[in-house]
Amino acid sequence: MKYKLLGRSGLKVSELCLGTMGFGTEGGWGADRATSFDILDTYADAGGNFLDTANIYKLGTSEKIIGDYLGMHDRDHFVVATKYTLKDNVTNPNASGNNRKNMMRSVEESLKRLKTDFIDVLYLHIWDDITPIDEVLRGLDDLIRQGKVNYAAISDTPAWVVAKGNTLAELMGWSQFIALQVEYSLIQRTPERELIPMARHYGMTVTPWAPLAGGALTGKYLRGENGRVKPESNRRDSNSERITREVMAIAEELHVEPAHVALAWMMQQNFSCIPIVGATKVDQLKQNIKTVDVVLNDEQKKRLDDISRIPLGFPGDFFKEDAVRNNSFGGFYDKVEKRY
Hints:
Layout: E1 3-5, E2 12-14, E3 17-19, H1 33-45, E4 50-52, H2 61-70, E5 79-84, H3 100-114, E6 119-124, H4 133-145, E7 149-155, H5 159-172, E8 177-181, H6 195-201, E9 205-206, H7 238-254, H8 258-267, E10 276-278, H9 282-289, H10 298-308, H11 316-319, H12 322-329
Parallel strand pairs: 3-4, 3-10, 4-5, 5-6, 6-7, 7-8, 8-9
Antiparallel strand pairs: 1-2
Helix pairs in contact: 1-9, 2-3, 4-5, 5-6, 7-8, 7-10
């Protein structure tokens, strides 16, 4: 694998991030400890160093497995990203949410499970819509100054909140968010309306979860295979089927798997993008890693763009109108460099 810089930082991470939400067998599915170790070995052998987990994944088992693995290998080789926000008990009203108390408590518990002195990247997991963003940024900056966290990141949060946070952090001299984690795929392109333009403006790397839309883009549902995605989901409706068939057609042209095409489309976007690929089996990961050798040509990218395109709404589509561009640029739109 090659390496990319994570956002506006000097942190070097592999071009595919390993999602570990399935490390553990709680809930009746997932990879046991031995299989998880095999997956981590396969990923590391391919040059991977970027691990994604969270305090709540498999009730903490995911972090514990990673901690056990790190204890047997070079901790500093790996970039470990975890998250705080989601509940780990239901008896304490401050054992969930974005508040500073939960942040500090969650980080201490994650450090114990990970058996490490520091977290490389700490994400706010989901915006709770009640905690002031300055409370979040100040707390993250304090953790960074204490050496318990190296970088701040944010997930599943409105664009205006992230923008306010990074602007405030820049003004106050606090650490800014360097990565944005959102659901993004050929089937879920709504982040292109506000979130991705915002991330591009601030130099943040986008780390999409569900880049294969819960497996829909692999074509397995069209082949009649069962999965955990409900039939009525937007990942399995007529539109997703139409998109998936185009993905499968291009995969046949390139003699690769549909998953490779869907991931390659994402990796070849005009913004910094590192997909999170989850795996509960070694073979799944081996297949996904082959994506790094897949290159889509301009015609194939256009076919995927066109078939999955969504309306941007106002003001995104308004800005694209010829009359608006002519009035805003005086006829020079195609002759002016676009910064963002």
